[in-house]
């Protein structure tokens, strides 16, 4: 990535990755923090009101190339992006009691970040919520990032691409500004290749939408193999962006998230015989291949 412009670099690092939207950062011991990953071309602002709606600590991830990070170059590969997100979560001390939510590309990034943290010996997420996303092994067969601008514009409009939680129609000027970021994010998804690893051991909840042209019900159901714990899939009305403001199933999504988060027991540290913390993911070794 190219260096950030001085205006961006002058901002607090915490505000770059996790905009606060007027809310203070979560206090230590405040309970499970829900860390939300954006969809391709999206920003953290789609999760702006989730803290109040869920009654829980919510932190939306802001990636380079958008919002206050508009002058930064967006990532074009999942590996460096996931590594930097994992670095930031560890640096912020957010890996003790946390859950992940990701929509579309965000679900893929959330899963990979959970795997990356496990490989570092960090505790895994308490719960993984995936939405509007095919299972990871089903990625890598699309080429929308190679379309010319006009074709990418048509693709975005065809799947109901929206801006920052707004159901208003997408106009030419708006999409022209967002196309470079959307193209970079689609390249992250389309160049991604899953590598076999054992499943995560946290409960998983998946959301598929009835009219989603990107992630069909069976493709979302395929996430079931990615956890050794419980798996629940909700099939809801709507298109790919059912979760944005005014979306037909946004209220149901928030209701299900609120319920699942409320049911999470308090996190308890697991230790080895020498007193060192042991991540839950190291306790199971199932074989798993596709």
Which architecture does the CATH hierarchy give at level 2?
3-Layer(aba) Sandwich
The CATH top-level class label = Alpha Beta
Kindly estimate the percentage of residues that lie in beta strands according to DSSP.
5-15%
Number of strands: 6
- Any idea what the CATH superfamily is called? Alpha/Beta hydrolase fold, catalytic domain
Rounded mean pLDDT is: 82
List SSEs in N-to-C order. HHEHEHEHEHHEHEH
Query: What share of residues is helical?
Result: 25-40%
- Residue windows where pLDDT falls under 50 for at least 5 positions: 1-9, 162-170, 269-290
Q: What profile does the largest beta sheet have?
A: 6 strands, parallel
Largest beta sheet: what is the strand line-up? Answer: 2-1-3-4-5-6
Output the keywords.
alpha/beta; Rossmann fold; six-stranded parallel β-sheet; disordered N terminus; AB_hydrolase_fold; Thioesterase
